[in-house]
Each structure stands twice: as C-alpha cells, then as structure tokens.
Amino acid sequence: MFVQKPLFNSFFHGGFECSTHRRIDGKRLDVIKDTAHDKHALEDYLALISHGINTARDGIRWHLIETFPGYYDWSSFLPMLRAARESKMQVIWDICHYGWPDDIDIWKPEFVHRFTNFAVAVAKLIKSETDEIPFYSPVNEISFWSWAGGEVGYLNPHVQGRGFELKQQLVCATISAIEAIRQIDSRARFIQAEPLINIVSPSLEKKAEAAMHNEAQYQVWDMLSGNICPGLGGRKDLLDIIGVNYYSDNQWYLSGPKIHWTHPEHEPLANLLNKVFRRYNHPVFISETGIEGDLRPQWIRYICDEVRSANLQGVAIEGVCLYPVTDYPGWDDERHCPTGLLGIADQYGERIPHTLLAEEIKQQKNMFELHQSFVKF
Fold first, then answer.
1. 237-281, pLDDT tens digit by residue?
2. What is the CATH number of the domain that holds 367?
3. How many domains does the chain have?
C-alpha cells in the first residue's frame, strides 16, 4: 500500500476457499461449489467491492476442467472469470489448490507436463477474455502440501516419508508453469504463497532442532530462486511476489502446544515479515489470514498493527488477504466454520456480513490511510 505503484487494486483482499483435494476417505472436496461461490461469483465480488475490497484470491478447478488428457471444459471457470471482468474485481487465480485430475500420477514426470499444459491453456483463455495484467498462484502452499500429503499422509497423495520429494516435484511444476505462461503473456505476475511459521525450543538442548525447522520454511522460495537444489531449474527471476499465509496457530513449541499471539514467547509478526523481506528483497503480502468466531475483529486488528510495525522497520507490505472471506464447511467434518467477512449464501446469493469485522476493516482502512502520510519508502 505504501509504494508509488501498488501491485494490487486494494490493500485488503478477499480469498475464496478453493481446495479440491481428496480426503483420506476418498471424497474429493470442492469448496467453491460447497460455498455456492460457483453460482454467485458476481454477487460475491460485488459484495467485497461494497466493503472496499477490490482484489481477490480465487481458484481454478483443474479436476473439473481437464476431464480427459488434453481436453479442457471451461464451463466451471468461464462464468467466474467473466464475473470478475464484469465487476472489475482483480483476481489472483490459484491454478492448483491441492487437487489434480484422478488419471495423473503426481510422482511421475507426466504431472509436470500435464500441469504445464493446463497452465498454458489457462493463460491463453484469460488473455483472450481480459486485457488486465494477470496474477497467478501456480501451486498453492507447497510447503504445507508436501508435509501434509507427502510426510504425514493427511492430504492427497496420502503417503508418509516422501515430503521433500513431493516438494521438489511441486516446485518443478511451478517453475515449468511460470516459464510457459511467460511465453503466453510476459506481463503475468506470480505469487508463491507459503506458511510463515515460528517454532520455539522448550530447552537449550533443542534450540538447534527448532532453528532447523524454522529454516525449512524458506525451502520453496529458495528452490524457486535457485538458492538451493539448483538442479530443479530455479532462477532469481522465477521468484516474483512472496505471499505469507499466517494464522493464529502458526507459532508453537517444538513437539508441543501452540503459542497464543498474546504470549510473551510469541514472536511479533512484524519481525517475521521483516526476516522474509530482508532475505529476498521481493514484494511481500499476507496472502492468507483469519480466525474463527468472535475473535475475527481482534485478529485482524492484531495483523494490521503488526503490518504497521513492519512498515516502521522499513518493510513494505503490499496487502492483507482475509482467508477464507466467506464461511465454509470444514474439510474433515463439513461443520460450519464461521471465519468470513461474509456468511453462507442464500438462494439469491446474498451473504450476511459479519458486522464487527466489517467495521474493523473500515476502521483499519482509515488508519492505513493516515499511516501512509508519514511512512515513506
């Protein structure tokens, strides 16, 4: 928000939950459908705009589009793309958000090839539909996916002990997709959204182990930029915009409980943002943040206070994405998760806003405008 040419159309963003992975019981999630965002994308975008939010994160559902190899059915995506164009909503499109077509083996080179071809088809379609600069998140949250799906077997592909191998495969797919999309549209911008964490050692003896885990959170960004694993093809220019996903449970004791954000051993978010910015010297934004229930206004207030503190340390944060921006059914038990600025849609696409969160966002927007007047970069 505090650079001369902002990357995004608004400082606050709204993120639509768009996970499409398969659960351990075999059920495939489609949270866009489950929240009725597929039916009410235009109403949802206009609702965000009414709250001064003109940038969104949203998803492209690969498994619905590539119904058999090389054939793309865009009927699930075109209405959303055109709703964004009609409402003038700037969208960062997730090309792969934990899910892929069932006929592909994610461990084989075919996955990289098929994903690249799909990403190219997406870029061609978007370029044909709009003149706006496109923003893409090629593969969402590789660090979490590789741990959850390749290390502990929680997400697909539901295996254990292969997390680093999955991380490399997903980075290879990301690199290939970025290079191919740039051939289609050299204006394209790319975000790489990864969890921002802090693990605290409960003892001096475990301090080195905690530090090792903290360092591992940077592996994806380091792979993309070629700092580690150069055989994957990473280069400095492949790391573009850094997205950090940060929630109330992103700090914990090594092999122990979470650290509440008011606890003295909770590292200030501003310090974590500063570390990322100084390490890479790339644009940074908070690509996901939120909390359930009545704490929503307090959490966003905390996040915004920390962003302003980071600004005073010389860190320019490009935006804050409320994620998910609508209530949604839980991944594992389909319970109602009250997380959003906007509630569940009725039959007409109307969503009741969370009044206190809406008021907090409005207040924070005003505070950032005042803050901008004396923070210069």
1. 999 999 999 999 999 999 999 999 999 999 999 999 999 999 999
2. 3.20.20.80
3. 1
The CA distances from residue 181 to 10, 71, 123, 137, in Å, are 25, 18, 6, 12
State both tokens at 248. 């109330």
pLDDT for 134 beyond 50: yes
Percentage of residues in the chain having pLDDT higher than 70 = 97
Report how far apart the first and last C-alpha atoms of the chain are (Å, whole number): 11
Q: Is residue 59 within a helix (H) or strand (E), and if so which, with residue range?
A: strand 55-59
Q: How many CB atoms lie within 10 A of CB 1?
A: 22
Residue at 2 is within a domain: no
Q: Three-state DSSP class for 127?
A: helix
Q: Identify the residue whose tokens are 């619905």.
A: 64
With respect to residue 333, please indicate whether it lies within any of the assigned structural domains: yes
108 part of a folded domain: yes
Cβ burial, residue 339 (10 Å; 0-12/13-18/19+): buried
Q: Is residue 258 a part of any domain in this protein?
A: yes
DSSP one-letter string for 108-147? SHHHHHHHHHHHHHHHHHHHHH--SPPEEEEETTHHHHHH
- Split at pLDDT 50, 70, 90, the class of 2 is very low
Full residue range of the structural domain in which residue 227 is found: 12-372
Q: How many residues does the chain have?
A: 377
Rounded CA-CA distance 352/119 in Å is 35
Which element (helix H / strand E) includes 337? strand 336-337
Query: Please, where are the H alpha helices in 266-354?
Result: 269-280, 296-312
